[in-house]
Amino acid sequence: MARIKKARVGIRLDMTPMVDVAFLLLTFFMSTTTFRPPEEVPVDIPDSRSKLKLPTAQVLTIIADHQKQLWLHIEAQSVRQKVFGVGYQKTASRPVTLEELPGFIEMARNGFATIPGGSSDINVILKADRHTDFDVIDRILGVLRDEKITSVHFMTNLEM
Prior knowledge:
Blueprint (H helix, E strand, L loop, with lengths): L15 H17 L14 E2 L10 E6 L5 E5 L2 H8 L8 E4 L4 H14 L8 E6 L5 H13 L5 E3 L2 E2 L2
Parallel strand pairs: 1-7, 2-5, 5-6
Antiparallel strand pairs: 2-3, 3-4
Helix pairs in contact: 2-3
């Protein structure tokens, strides 16, 4: 005796709730994201053909503008607060002199060593204006040499 097979019923999946959740998440992330603030010190950096990428972790940036002024930039907010103080919690850069630079480097080393997963090894990036005198850069490199920092990255525009 032959059995009668039931017809298969197709499954229909309603995608409307998933689309709603995706747009809700997109809206949430767009509204809570903080964009990179504008640079406090405009610097016209030189061009190069280097393919090396700049480091992104434990970075201390020294900015030298064409007026021979030095700025110290720390991206990590917790370290910036320890080095610069509470007044510089919102701004990432602070003007410094060559005499103050060794003290700030030592405080940055200690600050990076205290964060989870951090160490006292810091990556120094020198961002100098293309019209900055070489004697300023030489004195900065001398201070870094005295602080036992032998690896310095120079920030340049990538020439295509």
